[in-house]
Design goal:
Strand content: 5-15%
Helix content: 40-55%
Radius of gyration: 14 Å
Shape: globular
Strand order of the largest sheet: 1-2
């Protein structure tokens, strides 16, 4: 699936919930499906700066596509990183760099997060894009 197709799928899923409490519960559920980073990769280098919670993110490239793994010590944050990984995992660096992740606005995630979590979301997106930039330069 392309990033826009995945984004639309996420938008459709979140449209099933009327209340933000239900959407938060869904985010927590999504966190359980997060491709978990190896314990050996939970290093300072893989820690995303700017997040209130501790969030680790690793990235590798397989056949020209980026593969992400992550973990967090907070359940909502783990759900958020899981959602971002779902949108961007197994995509080319160029497609990741070109994506605007508009689904975040459409589902209302940014406006329903506390300012510190919103800053963390921005830091997560920035780190995912930095990996894409780094791997696009290496190719």
């Amino acid at each position: 699936m392309t990033i826009p197709e995945i984004e639309q799928s996420i938008i459709d899923e979140f449209a099933n919930f009327d209340e933000w409490l239900d959407k938060y519960a869904y985010l927590i559920e999504l966190g359980k499906d997060c491709p978990v980073i190896d314990e050996k990769d939970k290093t300072e280098q893989n820690l995303i700066k700017g997040c209130q919670s501790r969030v680790w993110l690793s990235c590798s490239i397989e056949e020209g596509k980026l593969r992400f793994k992550a973990d967090s010590d907070a359940v909502i944050t783990k759900g958020i990183i899981s959602l971002l990984i779902r949108a961007l995992d197994n995509q080319t660096p160029q497609d990741i760099l070109a994506s605007d992740l508009h689904f975040l606005d459409v589902i209302g995630l940014k406006e329903h997060l506390s300012p510190t979590r919103s800053n963390g979301l921005t830091s997560m997106v920035k780190q995912l894009k930095m990996y894409a930039l780094a791997f696009s330069i290496k190719q």
